[in-house]
Amino acid sequence: MNLAHIIDPHPADRVAIISRGRPTTYGTLRYQVAHVRGGLAQLGVTKGDRVVLLCSNGRYFVDVYLAALGLGAVAVPLNPSSPAPEIEREIRTVQAKVVVVEPSAAQAFSHVDCTTIPSISAVVATEAGKVECANMAFDDLLGADQVPVVEVDDDDLAALIFTSGTAGSPRAAMLSHGNLMSNILQGRSAGEGIGEGDVVYGVLPVYHIFGLNVVLGLSLHRGATVLLVQRFDPATALDSIRDRQVTVIPGAPPLWLAFSHFDEAPADSFASVRLALTGAAKMPEEAMRRLKDRFGLELLEGYGLTEASPVVTSSAGMPQKVGSVGKVLDGVQVRLVDENGEDALAGDAGEIWVKGPNVFKGYLNEPEATARVITADGWLRTGDVGMSDDDGYLYLVDRVKDLIIVSGFNVYPAEVEEVLMEHPDVQEVGVIGVPHPHHGEAVKAYVVLKPGATAHEDTLVSWCQDHLARYKCPSKILFVDELPRNVSGKLLRRSLV
Predict the structure, then answer these.
(1) How many Å apart are CA 157 and CA 84, to the nearest integer?
(2) Which of 115, 118, 409, 490 has a CA 20 to 30 Å removed from the CA of 193?
(3) Highest-confidence range of 50-54, 280-284, 290-294, 298-302, by mean pLDDT?
(4) Is residue 436 one of the residues assigned to a domain?
(5) Same domain for 18 and 142?
(6) Are residues 310 and 380 in the same domain?
(7) CA distance 400 to 155
(8) Hey, which residues does 248 pair with through a beta bridge?
(9) Distances (CA, A) of 51 to 16, 65, 348
(10) What CATH number does the domain containing 99 carry?
(11) Please, are residues 402 and 432 in contact by the beta-carbon 8 Å criterion?
(12) Strands 476-479 and 440-449, how do they pair?
């Protein structure tokens, strides 16, 4: 087997990807990937070697990603907008043999001293002359002779994905061909999911696991068309959705929040869309209702994480329950575990534990960190708190590490955030715990107001007191222009100080 085979079965004339307005059929994609595979082989890339991709959403990424997989090499997608020190650290961590760089990453990469990283044998520029330290151009790879796909075992590494770092320094999660393929196949249990006739809006970064293995991997496996988008702008996005007749939009909450606040958008903006998906962070219920009222758009939440390749639950193909992230995919097991390591009582919240062939192999060169998240019998401890209802729907409560303890009482930030989001003047909110001399911790909120709103701190504190127990209410509210988020839209609480 080899994950690179996902593009093989589809008709040659069907469009696989659209990048910068240029369609590429499955036949052409197979032809290009086979040549790039040969080009990487000429550079000495073999099974197990690391190929770093400093590329955003586009055809270069797709060609190199599938070509690297096809050689049995390990693809390492990195954020091309990262600063040079982070790029250099991650390249050193994975001991990259080849680095492929697009122009948007050229400036940062120019500050990486490749001569001090002995594992690097070649730097490939996607566009000739745009990366000064490159010793090869992408067209050189494309001009090489084709070589066949190398068959691998399920447990062989396919990708190293750096986690978002919400718990500290990012770590490289080891995902095998079997991990990624199993999650693609598990996605079949989500009825009415992505299919061969779909056009998928691909704005989620492909260097993030959801963009990589759902937007790209699952879509190509099903024979769908992926419209690759490098930058998000609500007005331009609506034009693309209409012109390309997009049918599936996977997006993080910031994308949907932007659409929900886009007052100029016509009511029929999403007429072609049959499946609207969100994940990565909790979606405010008020915004979901606004999307439904304005556009008739039913937004379906799911849940996943890098270490699960990534999808654990989905709401696709089932009756919507607002606030729920859906049901567990077939082939995935989930437990809700209490503080004592026992299964939580029915109706009680517990840490979400996940088990299945989609669970990753661990963190690269970090056995202690791996042991903290994977139990001896193979359960992945997600650090997320959830509860389920009688129908098997899962609801996220919060992160274990984000729990605030006020005078011995548990306060989940998401609960406070949800209440503040219901205030008509509030656009976004982030809540953290801060030290308190008498209560251990206190609740502190960071609020982004809607344009023209005039709410004061006392107003919002009173609002919370009308809806929450007093110990859950913020003792301090700061007004900010924006909240810190990672590329997947997840709130970076550690950056709120």
Answers:
(1) 26
(2) 490
(3) 50-54
(4) yes
(5) yes
(6) yes
(7) 30
(8) 200, 275
(9) 23, 8, 45
(10) 3.40.50.980
(11) yes
(12) parallel
Residue 176 in domain: no
Number of structural domains (the chain) is 3
For residues 468 and 472, what is the distance between their CA atoms, to the nearest angstrom?
Answer: 6
- Please report the DSSP string for 185-205 in residue order: HHGGGSTT---TT-EEEE-S-
Q: Which of 416, 430, 425, 424 is nearest to 464 (CA)?
A: 416
281 in the same domain as 351: yes
Q: How far apart are the first and last CA of the chain?
A: 48
CB-CB contact of 486 with 165 (8 Å): yes
User: Rounded to the nearest 5°, which phi and psi values hold at 142?
Assistant: -65, -25
pLDDT in tens, 428-454: 999 999 988 777 789 999 999 999 999
Backbone angles phi, psi at 177, to 5 degrees: -55, -40
d(CA 6, CA 2): 8
DSSP 3-state percent helix, strand, coil across the chain (nearest 5): 30, 25, 45
Place of tokens 């903006």: 269
**Scanning the structure block, which residue is given the tokens 């924006």?**
482
DSSP bridge pairs for 277:
250, 300
In the β-sheet with 122-125, what is the strand arrangement from edge to edge?
Answer: 136-137, 122-125, 98-101, 50-54, 74-77, 157-162, 172-176, 362-363
Q: How many Å apart are CA 172 and CA 307, to the nearest integer?
A: 10
| Cβ neighbour number for residue 171 with a 10 Å cutoff | 23
Residue 473 scores a pLDDT above 90: yes
Residue 82 makes CB contacts below 8 A (sequence gap 6+) with: 90, 108
Structural domain of residue 481, as residue ranges?
A: 403-495
Which pair of structure tokens corresponds to residue 427?
């656009």
Model pLDDT for residues 227-246, shown as the tens digit of each residue: 999 999 999 999 999 999 99
Q: Give yes or no: residues 203 and 66 share one domain.
A: no
